[in-house]
Each structure stands twice: as structure tokens, then as C-alpha cells.
Fold this sequence. Notes:
Blueprint: H1 36-53, H2 63-75, E1 81-82, H3 83-90, H4 98-110, E2 115-118, E3 137-140, H5 142-147, E4 155-158, E5 165-169, H6 176-180, E6 182-185, E7 190-193, H7 198-209, E8 225-230, E9 239-243, E10 245-250, E11 253-258, H8 265-277, E12 285-288, E13 296-299, H9 306-316, E14 320-323, E15 328-331, E16 334-337, H10 340-381, H11 394-406, E17 409-411, E18 423-425, H12 431-438, H13 442-446, H14 450-472, H15 474-489, E19 498-499, H16 507-510, E20 515-520, E21 525-527, E22 537-542, E23 547-552, E24 556-561, E25 566-567, E26 572-578, E27 586-592, E28 599-605, E29 615-616, E30 625-632, E31 636-644, E32 654-658, E33 664-666, E34 672-675, E35 679-690, E36 695-700, E37 705-707, E38 713-718, E39 724-728, E40 732-736, E41 749-754, E42 760-766, E43 773-779, E44 788-790, E45 799-804, E46 810-816, E47 824-829, H17 830-833, E48 844-845, E49 850-856, H18 901-912
Parallel strand pairs: 8-19, 17-18, 28-33
Antiparallel strand pairs: 1-3, 2-3, 4-5, 6-7, 8-9, 9-14, 10-11, 11-13, 12-13, 15-16, 20-21, 20-22, 21-25, 23-24, 23-26, 24-29, 27-28, 27-30, 28-34, 31-32, 31-35, 36-37, 36-38, 39-40, 39-41, 40-44, 42-43, 42-45, 43-48, 46-47, 46-49
Helix pairs in contact: 2-3, 3-4, 7-15, 10-14, 14-15
Amino acid sequence: MEAHTEAEPVTEEETEEEPKFAPGETIHDVATVAGMYQNWFLDYASYVILERAVPAIEDGLKPVQRRILHAMKEMDDGRFNKVANVIGQTMQYHPHGDASIGDAMVNLGQKDLLIETQGNWGDIRTGDGAAAPRYIEARLSKFALDVVFNPDITDWQMSYDGRKREPTTLPVKFPLLLAQGVEGIAVGLSTKIMPHNFRELCKASIDVLRGREIQLFPDFPTGGLCDVTNYNGGLRGAKIRLRATIEKADKTMLVIRDIPYGTTTTALMESIVKASEANKIKIKKVVDNTAADVEIQVHLPTGVSPDLTMDALYAFTDCEISISPNTCVIIEEKPRFVGVEDMLRLSTQKTVRLLERELEIRQDELWEKWHNASLEKIFIENRIYRKIEECETWQDILDTIDRGLSKFVRIEGQKAKADDQRIVLRRPITEDDLTRLTEIRIKRISKYDGFKADEYIQRLEAELAEVADNLAHLTRYAIAYFENLLKKYGAGRERKTQLRTFDVVTAQKVAVANQKLYVNYQDGFVGYGLKKDESAVTVCDCSDLDDIIAIRRDGTFTVFKIAEKTFVGKDILHVGVYNKNDDRLVYNMVYQDGPSGVAYAKRFLVTGITRDKVYDLTKGGKNSKVLYLTANPNSESELVGVQLTDKAPARVKQFDFDFAELAIKGKGSMGNIVTKQPIKKITQKSLGDSTLGGREVFFDAVVGRLNTAGHGRYLGTFDTDNTVLVVYKDGSYELKAPDPSLHFDVPNIVLLRKLEPDTVLSAVYVEGDTKVHYVKRFKIETSTLEKRFIFISETKGSKLLAATAFPEPQVEVKLQRDKKADKETEKIGLHEFIDVKGWKAMGNKLNYFKIHSVALLTDEGPEPERRQVAKKKGPATIPRPVAPEAPAPLPELTGPVEVTSEDVERAQAVLRRPKAQLGLF
């Protein structure tokens, strides 16, 4: 439907009067907004990207940082300047106010590379801000003066108001951007470049110049631990994980020594308190003792595991964070995304070009000095200055000097005469050269020393030869430049962040059991909110992150997320916490198939499930029901007694059934037939051993954890009473349970292995007071877990040199037999040197005049043998009697066989018995 409207005629009264202007007045041209927004937005976005947020690849600085350094260079006189004065000086170049300049300057100062600070500049670890600019001072560091500035090779531009000249980019001869890191948010893009280690950058630049492959990883001023598995050169999509360094002070206290980059001690403590209030972790209190070093004490209640709490801190607090780098820089006036390795290559190439330009400028300066010194020497020694006494005009003076010099010099490229001894100049003599000679004072001429002049010229020529050699071998010169930086400024700049590979801490595993699981068997409800329900019973402790499994009498089960109250159906048989990674929890079940009435037995694991989906453990027939069900945490077998109903036709109404005879299969298996007769009840007679055997335990030294997934070194098969022996560098040992949740301090561990009854520990140590070396061998006599026992001397300065569990250990000793003797090497078998003694014994002395070093020639001990056949899901077995030897074959019967009527009746009775009663099950 279309609507047609006619325009109404406009009356004269409604017509607007045209504005009237005084003579000489004009109206501005009217511009429409259409198109203006688009242009202005693009201009603004480009301005923010290029002039505010993203650093340039040439010097790695944002404009505000570059202007601060330029202003400080202009003010530099070797002394500290008030930051307020530096801000005022910078405002001549930066049009965005003092606040942005002050914040940027504090950020530069806290990185401790370009600016030397004095006063309270804040603390990136605690989040404390700097004092007011009028109270703090700064000056350029020696590194900045050496590396950042050189006006001769700097490109300049006019400042925003046209009054001053500022550098377009600074000639930085170092990968400054990678050393400091940067973060900026522009319009439509952002950049986040991680800081890297100073020494590693210098070494990597040297490797680039030598044509080697490089790989760079972040290093943060706050220290801590870093997993760079997915760093990918810092490109988009990369991710790094950062963790605080947490130590176990004792069983009731954890100490946080380093914090992740980007957090503060205050924020970290707040996240811990928040997690505690949410019942995700159990702590008593948190104390911040941070001073020169970070120290946050986390006090634990009695009975709380410090290892589990450590994992919980990583899972629920800022003790672990992740950062997504995004290396975006300005290259040729455009933002570009490049990896840190490529960025370093570009920076190294730029540094080589800058060094070449500096050498060329220096070469020109030296040639100019040599040129002037040579002309001055000729002018004075040949007394050309006397010939200008008779000259009347200035031009005559210049011509006279020029004619006098021409007898002794020639320009490079001019044809030489026979036996020409004239000095070759690189450029023609100019009027400025002649004028400079006329300005030499008589006093200087009278004291002129020809020998010193020759020495000066020789020094210039030697330096010229050195510069020419450096230009000819520019790569070698650049390598020496970076080596000098490393030597001059690399002290005290060692890596602070430890590179590790983290295991994934699952929240469900470390969540505190802050709830109790209840079940109402009568009404079919499960949850942690049934405490006031009179019909509900407590099942176990759980957390609000757990999954719950509920198995019903009809043989169906469901796995669901725990909630306050959930209806799962009536006739519940079993409710428990479900762990999808638990491959040791085995269910033993007997069920009756509805249609056939046959009873089946099965052993199964519950893995690979979907939440809230109903699964059937029976054959799926109507009226099927579970007769017997147990959950066995360590795959224990059972011996049960089966009692048939009174109406069963079988003669034997009771018999035993051993679950150890069944293989452990999946949840969908049918099972084996127990009997075809109706069953009255099944009762447990005895609980068997674990049919999967002991757990195979491995030690992953990368993450410092035990595991059963096959990662790392194989330690052996661990049963309930087996322990792990750990020997530390401080001369102590400790026994630990093979718990995968334990953290091991790998850098301080000498030996870690399964403790066997026949394990003998051999050790070499030096006693602190006497500096005497001892050898001792002993067996582990203690059985207390989680307690260190020191087996070397406890005097200050005592040190463990070697420790091994090898049966026949050997060491190589570098020694001197007396003061004047030469050093020699001797191999000693420790098992022959000393017998096995108690662990508290001092041991036997190594009686040599001086021992320089002790090196262990054997490894830490024999590797345990792995089981040939894994019993993880194979058939369970029980001890069986050895079959007797087969009897000798009976003689073959050749005559007729007599069968009586009694034999026939007995056979027929056996055939009439049900198969389940024939002793086969």
C-alpha cells in the first residue's frame, strides 16, 4: 500500500527571512557531516597507533618515552634532576600534559635500564606508587648514554609547535624493545610485548651475526615461574602461564617468594582471602612480610595438606595467571605483527647499520684531523709563514701559502712525478684550510715540536687503519660490540624467571571438600542441601565442583554435577563422587536379567561418560535388577556367598563365587553367568587383594611430580607400604608416600628412587670445621614419613659432594698427596673403601693432603624392571595350586567293558542337575 501526499503551499508568513549581514561580513561555507566522521576517525585511529600506543621498531620507544629521553639528554650534566623539571622540559615536545609524561617516566625508571633513579619510585611487586615528581630525581644511566644517543646519525623533525627540534627516532644500538617490553592499547589494535633477559638478548644478537638459530623466552623483573610451551615467538594466539614461587616452610605454612608478572602482593593476598571465603581453599591467615624480597606467608590449619593447598593456590588464586602476548610494532609507518626472533634480527641488522654509519663518521673525522695536522706540519717546518710577510693583500697571502704547500703535497688522483715524495691528500686544499693556517699563533709556531707532531699523525694513521679494518669486517666488529655490552652492563642481570613446564591443575582435584554429600534413598534425592532432611544419610565429603554418580536398582546409572538437591530416581543402590580419570575404581556387580531370569556377574570401570545421560549396566531387558553391587577403590576382588531361593530345583542351595575369576571390562559388558536359578541373597565373605597389582609410578623431573601416566623416569611398582627415598643437596634424606599431588624441589634433589629393603646409600661429604672429606655407606633405618634426617655432619659449612644407591659405586678424586706434589686423579670404589654402617656414623676419612674435586662415575642406582604385561584391564587372577604331573597312560583295553545298572542310574542323575551346580561357576 502506497501513500501519496501533496506538498502544501508555503505562505509568505512561513517563509524564513534571509539573514542580513553588515558590509564586509561573510558566512563560512557549510560542510555536511557525511564523510567527515569517517575521515576524522581514520585520522584519529592512525594518530593513536603511530603517535601514542605502539612503539617503533627502530628504537623500541613510544613517542612520549622518546621525548623524555631527549629532554633528559638536553638537561644532562652528570647530576640528578628533579623529575618535575624533566616533565617541564619534556612538555616542550609532548602535547599531552604532565600526567602522561610523569606516568611514562616512572614506568621507564622502574625498568632499571635507561634511567638511574633516586628517591621513592614505587614498587612493581607491591603496587605502591612513586612519590610526587617534586620529591624524586633521575638522570640518564651510563648504558643509555652509550647506546641510545648520537646526534650525528639521528634523524630530526620539528616539535608539535614548530619551536623545537626533536628526534624522529633515536639511534638505539640494542634490542631495547625486547629488553623492556611494552604494552599499549590503540584504536582497533593493541600490543603486548614481554620483557626479555638482557644477557640473553646480547648472546642472541651475537648468534644472529654468526648465522645461528635463536630462540627467545620472556624474563620478568618479578621472577617466578613461567611455562613457555605455547609462547610461539609472542605472535597473536600465543599464551604463557606464570606462577608464583611457593615453598613449604613446614607442615603448617607455605611461603610465596616470587609473584607472577602483572600482579602485586596486595592483589595476590586479596585473591587468596577471596578463595578462602568461598571455601575453595582452607587457610588460617595470610601475612605479608615483603621488604627487600617478596615473602607472603600462608598459614594452614592443622591437618590440611600443604601440597594440595599449593595446587589449590594455583587453581583458584592469582598465584597462577596466563598472559596472551601480541607483538605489534611500527615498521615503515605501519603496524606489523612479527615474532620476537624476527624482531631481534631486524634490531641486530639496524644496529650493524648504525655501527657502520658511526665508523664512517669517525673515519671522516680522523681523515680531517690528519689532513689539518699534515698541512700544519708542512706550513711550520718549511717556514711558509715567512713568505707571507711581503704580501699586501689577503688574496696574495692565500695564494702564497697555496703555492708553498703545493711543493710538498698532491691530491689523490693526480699524476705522480718521478721519485715523488709529496704527501698525498684525500681532498683538495680549500680556502678554509689556508685561513686556518694563518690563524696559528707565533707562540705555537715557536714551540712547535716536530717529533710530537709525527707521533700524533702516526696515532691518527693507526686509528684510521683500525677503523678501516672494522669497516671491512663489520660483522666481527658488531660481535665485539655486543660482547662489550655484555661484559660492561651484564653483571647482575641474570635471568630471574625460571622456565618450567606446568602440569594442569584440575580444579576438581584440589577443591577443598567443603560440603557433605547426602542421599535420601526413600525419595530418590541427592545433594549437599539435605542436611535437615530426616530421611537423608551422609555419604561422604565433597566439594561444590564434584561430579556425582548414582546407580539404581534397575541397573541404570547417571553422572551429574553436584547441586543442593537433585532427583535421580527411587531405588538408589550407590551414590559417590565420580572421577573420570580414576582407573582403579572397579565395581563388582551381580544382576538378574528380567526376561531370562539368569544371574550375571561383571566387574567394570566407568569411563567415557556424558553428564546427565542414563546408562544401563544390564542387558537392557525389562524387569532386570541388581542383586549385588560394591565399589572398590583399588580394584579389590571379593569372595561372596550365593544363596538360592527355597523354590529353586537345585539340590545345592548355597555356593561361593569369586570375583577374582572375572576380567575387568567396560560398563557395557554383559558379564558371566552365575546361575540360572532364582537367588535369595548374596553376602560378602571376604575382600580380596587388588587384582590390578601395584601402581607403576614415574617421576617427571620437568614438573617435579610423580605420576602413573608414564611421564618421566620409571621408579617401580608401588604397593601400599612402599615409599619414595629423596636425598637432598644439604645432606639429608626423606621418605615420602608415592602421592601424585606432592611437589618435589628438583634443583635441590640429588637422588630420588623407590626405597627397597636392600637399598644402601653411599655418600661423600666434606666436614665444615675441619674440611676433612668422609665416605659413608648406610641403610635407611627410619620409617617416619615427611621428615628429613641429616646424615652428614651438622657443622656449618658441611657439604654433600656425591650420593648414590648403586651397589658398587665408584668416584674419581682429584687430589694432592702433599704440598709439593702435582695434582693426580684416583678412582675409588666406595663399597671397597668402607663397610655398611649406621646412618648416624661419621664414616671413614679420605686421608689426602688436599682434595680438589670428587666426581661420581656411576649413576644413582639400578633401574627397576617394568612388568612385561600390564594388568590394568586384563583378567584378574588368584593363586592356583600347581597341577600334578600327568599319570602314566593306562594300558589300552582290548576286551569288552562291563557297565552295571547302578553306573547308568548315577550318570543319568548327574545329567539331570542344572549346569550352574556342576562346579563350573
